[in-house]
Amino acid sequence: MIFISHENINYKKASSYYIVGSLFNKGFSFLTVPIFTRILSTSDYGIVTTYNSWVSILAMVMGFAIYMGIRAAFIDYKDQMNNFMSVTTTFTLMSGAVICLFVGGGILLLKINVNITMIFLCLIHSLSSALIQNYSMYLMMQFRYKLRTALMILPSLLSVIISVVAILTVVKSELYMGRIVPTAMINVACGLLILATVYNKSHMLFNKTYLKYALSISMPLVLHGIALNILSQSDRTMITILADSSQTGIYSLIYNFSMIATVITTSLDGVWVPWFTERLKGREIKEINVIAEDYINLMTYAMIGVILCGPEVVKLLASNKYWEGITIIPPIVLANYIIFAYTLYVNIEHYHKKTPYITVNTLIAAATNLILNFIFIPKYGYVAAAYTTLISYLLAFALHARYAKELEKNVYPLKNFVVPFLHIAGAVIMFYVTIDITILRWGILIIYIGAMVFKERKRITYYFPSIKVRFHKH
User: Which phi and psi (to 5°) does residue 381 adopt?
Assistant: First the structure.
């Protein structure tokens, strides 16, 4: 989709790097799922995913979502970004330190009975994640895709390798710590390297203008970020509390599997955002819509592939104690598709700096998710969480699309989603009808993909001219 830029080959190169980086990052982590689901109990696996949920939420709070201020600064302070990064990094360190002292002091004063080691790891891991997120945005907006790709790959690779070794050879009890400790330490090391890099380029620690600008953009998005994490992560915490951590482990496995198709979105988003920003700034609406339609179709095909091949992949990845979760693959995959769809409209809101509206819409969806979870998880367990998540994301899509249309009436026509939604609905029906008929379901998938490749053949050769050349040679 983004390869359309003829004037700058970096779009294509960046897309390629991000796809490779995301595939390796997500793919490598995903391919290790069979290892972790077998060397950890469902309870241990559930605790690890709950811990990761808290890291995501705390990273947003500590960082004040200031990475979005960094993104906006590339429009207004493009030639001053080293100083801007230094100032925002200092602010992130200070806010993280205050939160760490507050949490630690509260635990000591109130004598709360918690795992102190895990709390400490969670706090420093969260602060490091905030620093990594800030620097990743800085690299993305500069199209420094090689370094950003390395930042995507290396922490994940090292943490997985060290975790497996630790669990198998060192940790004898509380096996979940064998996954948590190495991951936290690797992220802390990356955070320290980023600090050294940022402060090597600029020693400016404070600038009122920069900080005011960044916070004016990011502050409204703190609640938005928390709400997003509630939407994507709270299910696991609430399943652990309202049901049990074993159910959390099953739900997390299916959720992680269902996110595989979003590797494409994650990888291309790093190029899509600056590309979209430049095109919208130049009022190239027609070009945006043409490429967006291809983007939507690509994600539709990927999601359908995940749905129809899901049961067998899950059986390969995990032991039979996880297989009961196969039935929730469709709603979770569809929820991830809705995330992709509404993010397109959120980008419009970001462009117009309407961050308070982004926050309000996301908070409404998150509150809906929490309420539905409290009502239905005690009765239906992790199955309820899958459907409440889908309902909440559909609400988020409706709210963001409605407001984005007020800002840019002609960008991303809603009709572009009608046929893709019908395709996915058909795939869901086929999934449940053929859930125990592997050959038929895979046959349907192969026929569908073949038909779509034929249908999109002109677009494929448009984006990848070398394919057309090779075809004619044969």
Answer: 65, -145
Distance of alpha carbon 369 from alpha carbon 232, whole angstroms: 10
In contact, 92 and 131? CB cutoff 8 Å:
yes
Tell me phi and psi for residue 25, to 5 degrees.
Answer: -60, -60
Handedness of CA 393, 396, 398, 401 (dihedral sign): negative
Phi, psi of 111 (to 5 degrees): 55, 50
The answer to whether residue 472 sits within a structural domain is: no
- Is residue 454 in a domain? yes
pLDDT score at 355: 75
DSSP letter, residue 415: G
Query: Could you tell me if 340 and 393 are in contact, meaning their C-beta atoms sit under 8 angstroms apart?
Result: no
Per the structure, the count of domains in the chain is 1
Give 62-121 pLDDT, tens digit per residue.
Answer: 888 888 888 888 878 888 889 999 999 999 999 999 998 988 888 878 777 777 888 899
Candidates 359, 362, 425, 445; CA nearest to 398 is 362
CA 399/CA 390 separation, integer angstroms:
14
Q: 339: domain range?
A: 9-466
Pairwise CA distance, residues 274 & 280, whole Å: 10
Q: Give domain status of residue 460, yes or no.
A: yes
Q: How far is CA 158 from CA 127, 171, 206, in A?
A: 19, 18, 34
Cα–Cα distance measured from residue 386 to residue 329, given in angstroms and rounded to the nearest whole number = 8
Answer whether 257's CB lies under 8 Å from 314's CB: yes
State the CB neighbour count (10 A cutoff) for residue 416.
16
Contact 431, 308 (CB under 8 A): yes
- Residue pair 413/405 in contact (Cβ under 8 Å)? The answer is no
Residues 6+ apart with CB under 8 A from 38: 318, 319
- 3 state DSSP class of 78: helix
Spatial separation of the C-alpha atoms in residues 251 and 428, rounded to whole Å: 19
In a domain, 413, yes or no: yes
